[in-house]
């Protein structure tokens, strides 16, 4: 007798329609190049790969983002924040419309500051903020006062918690290994669940994903995954602006996405921080497409 397996469950829950939005944002970081991330992911045959899974794809193109040379930093403790916020507000409107129309928003970055817009749009459409799985080497929870650099891509979790009503009790970090002192204090005070790479080593990625989903999910389409490609080890994802050794392996990354897919709770996804200038033969963008497919239900059998 053949018993039903987890991949079969993931197959049943495959997303039917995906709406792609590119946000070529690089105002949130010092190092240039992540504005080309959306193009790199598309070049890695994102649309064709999704369509082979039987998924209908609508690509809304890229939002217009000012380049740093044409912009004003405004505030040194949160560089370019007014411009970043304006772009994120536009993104939020698009994401809200996609969710209300029954689509699945897939947002391509750009630096990680764009998460503020994605989360805001989902929250408006659903009437409450989603639970969030934040895959990253870094905490991204600095405030303008605690940030050593003033770069907004290190602050989107702070703004999501403060401005978009994300519940700290329904959020989980996965893959942390480079966290500022101020961030450590904030994470402890807020009680946000943080799975460092030491936790991944100890529990295994399967155990981490199970615990994270138990924290963040509370029903169908209730989870947003915000995936910074620097969460993956730089041997597998060299094309990122802030690589940190000792990260998530290729198989662990796929296991993470496969676990979320099998849960049937994923409602939105974004992939950020791909820098093609620093990549090797588009390796990081190709991996990003593979991970997107795993998150949306692709299985081996």
UniProtKB/TrEMBL annotation:
GO molecular function: arginase activity; manganese ion binding
Source species: Vulcanimicrobium alpinum
Origin organism lineage: Bacteria, Bacillati, Vulcanimicrobiota, Vulcanimicrobiia, Vulcanimicrobiales
Pathway recorded for this protein: Nitrogen metabolism; urea cycle; L-ornithine and urea from L-arginine: step 1/1
Top-level class of the enzyme under EC nomenclature: hydrolase
Details of cofactor binding: Binds 2 manganese ions per subunit.
GO biological process, one term: arginine metabolic process
Cofactor: Mn(2+)
Keyword Manganese among UniProt keywords: yes
Record-given protein name: Arginase
CDD domains in alphabetical order: Arginase
Catalytic activity: L-arginine + H2O = urea + L-ornithine
Entries under PANTHER family matching the protein: ARGINASE
